[in-house]
Amino acid sequence: MESKMADVIRFKYGPVAILPMEEKPEGALQFKEGRFGCVTAAFMAAAKRRRPAVFDRRTFGCPGGGVGLGFGDQYVGFPGGIECYISVGNPEFARSPEAQNIRFPTPLDEGEGYFRSSETARNFVDSLPMTDIPAQYVGFMPLELLTPAESPAVIVFLANTDQLAALSCLAHYDRGGDTAVISPFAAGCQSLFLLPYAEAEKDPPRAVIGLTDISARKHVDRDLLSFAVPYRMFRDMEASVEGSFLARDFWLRIRERNKE
Q1: Are residues 163 and 114 in the same domain?
Q2: Does the chain have fewer CB atoms within 10 Å around its N or its C terminus?
Q3: Is-contact 98 122, C-beta < 8 A?
Q4: pLDDT of res. 258
């Protein structure tokens, strides 16, 4: 499958389609069962290596990854409470016998510091559009490998600031004053799939700017963010390329400086 936007905007890496699937593509990357892994890292590998990556309910890497990929509420039973882990930590739980053999990238007694309090963090978790997809796998597939018969759920572009500006402008091309693009706080994987997947059910849907998750940024090129588009919106944006600003001088000059 091809993209007019990719041809005109000229991204460093090709767009990646995300789709629920029942069969695993041949040669796909996949985490080992029971092993920790970052979904954002797998996404970047799929984009850079132009190779599919897949996940199922036993190989999503971490609880946040399970949530982000639509495998239900994997935060249930998180040691010491997910609302503590992503905010101020849980020193009392960290001292308990139950916690002694638990290892996460951030110590349980410190927390990640993304929210001022566990109550604020709980409000964030409760706001997530938890989803349990009706499929065996969720796959990251380079768009160029998709056949016309396949219908992805979400298309993700990796864009620098100039390219992100172009995508945002194009998203609003038919919207007038409606907000067509959002950038909410979320884990990297949640901004890639969970949130744009939920947007697909809205009328009209919105694109999601993501990979602003500081914990995931180490896996992402420093000048890139994600722009995740529900497939219906992607098709509308593709149809808007011809006749838009993308064929005019302002954009062509901006695109030229990206060759430097």
Answers
A1: no
A2: C
A3: no
A4: 84
